[in-house]
């Protein structure tokens, strides 16, 4: 995977799928010809990262988690070369291996670590800031989960397509309100088609109601109201779901339903996790 196609479940034959394949081809070529990759990265990401850093206003030496680094971790490497302590993750083991080779090739003294992980199950509590690539998906679920684990004062920077631009018609534009942050955010165009969104974690977590022990029968998870509990009967085969602990036979409680089509906040075995509606509609409960 790469920074343009990680964590996604595109429809076959869609424009997004074709763009993802094209970008992956380019970056796979870059993994074989690192000098070409360096030119590509400086052209595509150099100004973008500089603008994102200006928006984030971080001190040099701050710790950064980058979700969706891909096989050529341009963003992570550029951040590390500017003096930040960077952990870059991707959920594709092949991409992670390629990313490590790419970093090793440059023999950089920058502080960068490459790891394999699912974005929706990461603990971001030890980082000063979190970067999320454009095409991480399911975007709302990953963003909500990261925000939920971040410490107060930490900053989340994620990439969006600009409204009424070419990418806006191809990629879902996630507004801060979709993940419960209507206020206290900033947005900055970073190139002709993308923008960066900054959210600073507040002093308190999102308030949720305490669950009650009720159950339903013959529904999908998205049918449940807040405070309802049900047993999972069937789960679709998507790799982002098992790390959340949502498996057949498990009890899940809906703690909160975010407005504007935002994620469900669930309690599963004592954990609070966020699940995108698109997946909740395919999970059978009773």
Automatic annotation (TrEMBL):
Keyword annotations: Iron, S-adenosyl-L-methionine, Transferase
Keyword presence, Phosphoprotein: no
UniProt lineage: Archaea, Methanobacteriati, Methanobacteriota, Stenosarchaea group, Methanomicrobia
Family annotation (InterPro entries): Fe-transptr_FeoA-like, FeoA_core_dom, Nicotian_synth, SAM-dependent_MTases_sf, Transcriptional_repressor_C
Short name of one Pfam family: FeoA
Name under which the protein is recorded: Nicotianamine synthase family protein
Presence of the UniProt keyword Iron-sulfur in the record: no
CDD domains referenced in this protein's UniProt entry, alphabetically: AdoMet_MTases
Organism of this sequence: Candidatus Methanocrinis natronophilus
């Amino acid at each position: 995977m790469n920074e343009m196609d990680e964590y996604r479940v595109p429809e076959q034959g869609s424009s997004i799928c074709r763009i993802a394949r094209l970008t992956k081809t380019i970056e796979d070529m870059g993994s074989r010809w690192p000098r070409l990759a360096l030119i590509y990265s400086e052209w595509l990401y150099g100004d973008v990262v500089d603008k994102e850093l200006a928006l984030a206003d971080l001190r040099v030496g701050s710790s950064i988690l980058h979700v969706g680094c891909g096989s050529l971790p341009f963003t992570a490497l550029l951040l590390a070369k500017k003096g930040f302590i960077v952990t870059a993750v991707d959920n594709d083991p092949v991409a992670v291996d390629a990313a490590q080779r790419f970093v090793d090739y440059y023999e950089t003294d920058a502080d960068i670590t490459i790891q394999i992980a699912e974005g929706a199950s990461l603990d971001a509590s030890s980082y000063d800031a979190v970067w999320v690539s454009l095409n991480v998906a399911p975007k709302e679920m990953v963003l909500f989960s990261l925000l939920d684990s971040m410490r107060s004062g930490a900053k989340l920077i994620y990439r969006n397509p600009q409204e009424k631009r070419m990418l806006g018609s191809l990629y879902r534009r996630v507004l801060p309100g979709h993940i419960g942050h209507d206020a206290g955010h900033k947005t900055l165009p970073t190139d002709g088609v993308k923008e960066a969104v900054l959210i600073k974690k507040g002093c308190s977590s999102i308030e949720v109601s305490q669950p009650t022990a009720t159950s339903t029968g013959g529904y999908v998870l998205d049918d449940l109201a807040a405070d309802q509990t049900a047993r999972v009967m069937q789960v679709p085969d998507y790799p982002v779901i098992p790390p959340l602990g949502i498996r057949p036979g498990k009890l899940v409680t809906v703690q909160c339903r975010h407005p504007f089509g935002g994620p469900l906040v669930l309690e599963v075995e004592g954990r609070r996790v966020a699940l995108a509606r698109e997946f909740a509609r395919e999970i059978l409960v009773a």
